[in-house]
Structures are given as C-alpha cells and as structure tokens.
Amino acid sequence: MFSYLDHLECTQCGKDFPHNELQKISSCCGKVLYARYDLDRLSKEIDRNIFERRRGDMWRFSELLPVLEPKNVLTLGEGGTPLLEVGNLANKLGLKNLFIKEEGLNPTGTFKARGIAAAVSKAQELGVTGFTMPSAGNAAGAAATYCARAGLPVKVFMPQDAPQSNQKESVMAGSELNLVDGLISDAGRIAVGIAEAENLFDLSTLKEPYRAEGKKTMGLEIAQQLGWKTPDVIIYPTGGGTGILGMHKAFQELSQMGWIEGKQPKFVAVQPEGCQPIVKAFQEGKNDSEAWQNAATLADGLRVPHPFADYLILDVLRQTGGTALAVDDGSMVDAMYEIATAEGIIACPEGAATLVGLKRLLRDGFLNPDETIVLLNTGSGYKYLDLITASPTK
Asked: Torsions phi, psi of 196, nearest 5?
C-alpha cells in the first residue's frame, strides 16, 4: 500500500470526513481539515529504517502522504533538502547546535514546492481538471510549474507588486497570471469567486487539506536528519503558517508511532513589523488574530494580513512553549548578508528573519545556548537579488 490515509478531520470539532471525496474546509465549522492516517497499522507494518533506502525526495514518506496511487504523484524532485550545521554562525552566537534547513534548493527555489506538489497530486487523483491560486508570489510560481507538470490549467492571482521573478515563472510555466490591486487577501477573494464561477479548485493556504501534508515532510526530514530526534527549537518565518502546522503534525505522528525521541520542539513564529497579526494576538493572549491593516514588508511571503489558520498557529506556539516576535525589514536584509558571508547560504529575506529573531531571543534569555536550534530558510535569495546592492571589490 502506498498511503495509509484514513480520513479527514475538522480541527475545530473533530468531525470525520471521507478522504475519497474532494474536500476544502470543514462543512461543520468552516475550519481547516487535517489528513489523518492509520498510524497503528503503519507502525506495525513499516520500519522507519526503510526510508533510508528510498528515493531522496519527499515522496520517500509516501505512507504518510495523501496520494493513494504512485502513478498520481507529480514530482519535480521536491524535498530531501539538507539540514546544514552552521558552525560559523553558532560560534559567533555562542551556540552549540545550530542548523539551517535549506529549502531554497527545492524546485522553483522555495518550500512552496512541497505543499503544491502534494495538493495538486491529490486533487488530480480526485478528478480536478483546473485550479486557481492566490499567492504573495512563490506559491503561484510553484502552482504554475506543478500544474504544467500535470498538464492542467491554473489561474494565479497575486498583488501588483509581487516579485518579478514570481510573475515571470508563472507566465513561463503557462499559467494565466492575474495581478490584483491589493494584498494576498484581496487576491484570495477574487480567486475563490473565479473558482466557484468556473468550476475550478482553489488552492488557497489551508483552505484545502493537503498543502499542509507536503509541508509536513520538512518535519519528517528534520527528525530523520537528527537521528530520529526532535530539535529543541524551530524558528520559522510565518505568513500563512502552513509550515509550523505541518511540522508540528509530523512530530505528533512520529511520536504516536514511537519513531522519535524527544518532545515537541518549541515553535517560534517570526513576522515583519509591517505585518504581524500572529505576534499581536500571541502577545495579547488571544486565540484568533485580527486582520493587520496596511500590511507592508519587503518579505513578500510574510505579507499575510489575516492567516486563515491563526487559531491553530497560536495554539501550537502556546502548546510547545514557543513565542512570536516581529523584526524590521532592514534587519532582514542585513541578515541575508550575514548568513551568506558566514555560511555561504543565499537566504531569502523571510529565512533571514529567523536569524534576527534568534539573536533577540538569545539576548532576552528565552533560549538556552545548549539547545539544538533549527532555522528555516524557506527559499532562495536568488529570487530577491533586487534587495542586494552589489559593490565591486577594490
């Protein structure tokens, strides 16, 4: 058997839904649906060591992914990214175990490839013949490439000021590009309307169950790369928050099967000062966020004024003893230089924001220098070269 997918579950009330029908959000509560697997049977029938002998991409974990038939997997080699020990930065900061999960090596240059590969593969398996995708940029580019791989049309919607690299890759891969006067929230409303009018499937963040499953594989890989142990801390640049939720879910599933040592890592959400709805809600002790007004940041992937899964993100931060903090745009760009100079990793501004957050948490005494800490670089800085000023060496 390829997948042990068993059912879908409403994250609000726990109601079950069938996985063999096309689902979006829960009809009971209008909330996020999670994919649930027969973990008891899986743990009895599969040995975790089998993954070491398999293909290098994220589909090595097929039993914990939603696609039922191997023939329906759409892949460009996503996943299998390195967990790089960054000793130069660690020494500089007085840390013992610091790692960067380098997601810039994915197809289309970002971690969005994981979620879109899973979502488009599963939707195609369930008979979907066309898509819409609202995006701050990178998810649209990924949707365009994977829909091209599937031979299916997609209409992408992104803000007028989305990065040129994302606009160009979307057009290059044959999608219909629609630029919206506004933010990703505005793009989302238009995409949903078009999907309903034209019988297309909308791939909005966490408004279908399977993008989170692709992002989950980051957590599965981190556990495997650390010798089936959990890190103490994961610092994550948070827009829609799918990565936090996916990794938390991965560690839950591995723990339930007895496959990992250690408790859930402390999750830390980093947002830009110009768009920090999760930070504000966390600091105010609220269970839901308010839409951030006049959202603005050069880190386009973090310009999400009102994450749909805010209630889940906030719950994970509190459950794990984590926190949320905001950083300014200038410090992100400085950190892009710092990471590249110290470690040779060309990080995107969103990924670089995690280093800024790490420094502050160390200064404030929130983190222990002996802890194993993972920073998520969610994409390649090569997509953001407009932020870098080149000056020739004299």
From this structure: -70, -40
- Residue bearing tokens 């999670």: 34
Split the chain (394 residues) into runs of 10 and give each run's mean pLDDT: 93 98 97 98 96 95 98 97 98 98 97 98 97 90 96 94 90 94 89 94 94 98 98 98 98 98 96 98 98 95 96 98 98 97 98 98 97 98 89 49
Give the residue carrying structure tokens 């994977």.
Answer: 146
Beta-bridge partners for 272: 327
Which amino acid would we find at residue 2? F
CB 339 within 8 A of CB 237: no
Q: Could you give the CA distance from residue 264 to residue 132 in angstroms, rounded to a whole number?
A: 34
Give domain limits for the chain.
83-110+210-387
Q: Which residues contact 247 (CB under 8 A, 6 or more apart)?
A: 215, 216, 218, 219, 222, 234, 236, 267
What element of type H or E holds 169? helix 164-172
Please enumerate in sequence order all residues whose Cβ is within 8 A of that of 167, keeping only pairs 6 or more positions apart, or say none.
Answer: 137, 158, 177, 179
Tell me, which fold does domain 83-110+210-387 have in CATH? Answer: Rossmann fold (3.40.50)
Residue 394, amino acid:
K
